[in-house]
User: Fold this.
Amino acid sequence: MIFVNFKTYKEGSGEKALSLVKAIEEISSQNNVKVIPCVQAIDLKTISTSSKLEVWIQNIDPVEYGAHTGSILPEEVLEAGAEGTLLNHSEHKVQNFEDLKMMVARANELGLKTLIFASNLDELSKVCDLAPTFASYEPGELIGSTTTSVATAQPDIIAKAVEITRAKGIPLIVGAGIHSSEDVRKSRELGAVGVAVATDIVKAQDPKKELLDLIEGFK
Ligand code: G3P
Assistant:
């Protein structure tokens, strides 16, 4: 399983986002590996209606219908076709744990899946108590690296992350600097069920080629 986080890269926005989703769809349909584009709120409806892939959004806010100017309403995310939401990414940290709890509760009420990010093992343990669909260990300092991945730099920490998540029955995703089939293979050997990736796919000259390489790590 590969989560592709489109972030707010130019290459992952608007028309470019749609063409990237089409490329991902082509490659994932030819291989037996689930790939989930995680897109911006503004692109969600266009992409979900144009693609057969399961599409996720990058965030929701802990609000209900009402006076919450600028918020991303979970109900509308569902209506726009998302099947799940990323939460607490290190680029969009939730400052208050009660808010994160409410985001997961709102997602659960509506049937939206959740992936909560954690930047360290203490945080990972805490977010697993919220029983998300997936938890992800992603050290902020390696995000965006094209040379060093969490899999090569922190195998011991991934192994501990696997212990924590397994004990709580949550599948682990790892991310940060993932850019090769070897990174994926290593992560899976250590016990992760999948990876979260951005740079390697979203900013690639040839995203299909890079995705095929990552998919090799599942074989
Ligand atoms: O959510 C995944 C993302 O933060 C990883 O980014 O650029 O290191 O693949 P990157």
